[in-house]
Design brief:
The mean pLDDT is 93. By secondary structure, this protein is α/β, with parallel strands linked by helices. The strands form three sheets. It has a four-stranded parallel β-sheet with strand order 2-1-3-6, with helices on both faces. The chain has a four-stranded mixed β-sheet with strand order 5-4-7-8. The protein folds into two domains: 163 residues, no CATH class; 150 residues, 3-Layer(aba) Sandwich (Rossmann fold), CATH 3.40.50. Helix 1 links the parallel strand 1 and strand 2. The N and C termini lie far apart (55 Å). It binds iron/sulfur cluster (SF4). The site of iron/sulfur cluster has 12 residues, from helix 3.
């Protein structure tokens, strides 16, 4: 039995939890490789043309796994997120693409077996109920699955704590590699993790900024205290329905207030629905505090255009 997990979508937020859970149960996990031209092309040819680029890429990874031996797929059912920062509102949600992903995949690929336990979170605590229901599926008793879940939950908390305390990107912890520089000059790249850390789709904007001599801060490195302070500065409609949009808004405001950050790149998929009001709800305020540029990425984005944008932005920062 091999559980297929696409290296796409919410992989860079929750893979350590998922991996630990299945490792503890003795179930093999197969992960698709990093996005490359072939995976991207498969995604572009199989996903609905109106979907955003990250969803098209997700299809590319699913099809790689279908062709490479995964026989059960993990497509978690993304559910309610509650937040202790009450000013953000009690509940927020992932984009409908992720909420509906398991059902869409069942309809797209009826021949594949799918498990879709619920990812509902109260801050960093994941609701165990639907994970414990997987006991029979893997031939384990409730106590064994409960133990696996608790270890996975602890792994998730530790993953978040390390990103914040050690200023590491999720990709650095998951892949066990050092990417960032040790420069004192910092720049922030804030965006959805499935674009920020997909170095093919994002045209490796992180690597380009590191090569230009910057230490890069990303959304997952923002500390709890920075978030708590930032949320007080979200002047207009602190609550937003969308979980990742709220995370981006707090991160943007936090790095705007970080005196070591010279400038901010807001990285966004071209036709993202939930992010369409970012200008109104945060960017106009951030712009008063710090230089910021928005880079919108789609499948037609090219190296030459991005290099020109980056050079122009770095000139502004000097
Ligand atoms: S939040 Fe935006 S980028 Fe993310 S899946 Fe939804 S539409 Fe795509």
């Amino acid at each position: 039995m091999k559980i297929g997990i696409p290296r796409a979508g919410l992989y860079y937020l929750y893979f350590p939890f998922w991996k630990k859970f299945f490792d503890e149960l003795g179930v093999e996990v197969v992960v698709s490789p990093k996005t490359d031209k072939q995976i991207m092309d498969i995604g572009l040819s199989t996903a609905n043309g109106e979907a955003c680029l990250p969803i098209k890429i997700f299809y590319g990874h699913v099809n790689w796994l279908r062709a490479n031996g995964a026989n059960i797929f993990l497509f978690p059912q993304m559910d309610i997120m509650t937040n202790s920062l009450k000013k953000l509102g009690e509940k927020s949600f992932f984009c409908p693409y992720f909420v509906g992903m398991s059902d869409v995949m069942r309809a797209e690929y009826p021949e594949i077996e799918i498990i879709s336990p619920k990812m509902a979170m109260d801050d960093k605590t994941i609701d165990p109920e639907s994970w414990l229901e997987l006991a029979d599926k893997f031939g384990k008793n409730k106590a064994e699955v409960k133990s696996a879940f608790e270890k996975a939950q602890a792994e998730h908390v530790s993953f978040i704590a390390r990103m914040q305390a050690e200023q590491l990107m999720p990709v650095e912890i998951i892949d066990g590699i050092k990417i960032n520089s040790s420069s004192k000059d910092k720049i922030a790249i804030i965006g959805h993790p499935y674009l920020t850390y997909d170095f093919h789709a994002s045209l490796n904007i992180i690597g380009k900024m590191i090569k230009n001599g910057y230490f890069v801060r990303t959304m997952e490195m923002i500390t709890e205290s920075e978030k708590a302070e930032a949320v007080e500065s979200l002047f207009l409609q602190p609550h937003n329905h969308w979980f990742l949009t709220n995370e981006e808004r707090m991160a943007l405001m936090a790095v705007a207030k970080d005196k070591d950050v010279k400038g901010i790149i807001y990285l966004t998929p071209f036709n993202c629905g939930p992010d369409f009001l970012m200008e109104t709800f945060v960017l106009k305020d951030v712009r008063k505090l710090k230089p910021i540029t928005t880079i919108s990425i789609d499948e037609a984005s090219g190296e030459a255009g991005l290099a020109t944008r980056i050079e122009a932005f770095i000139d502004v920062l000097k």
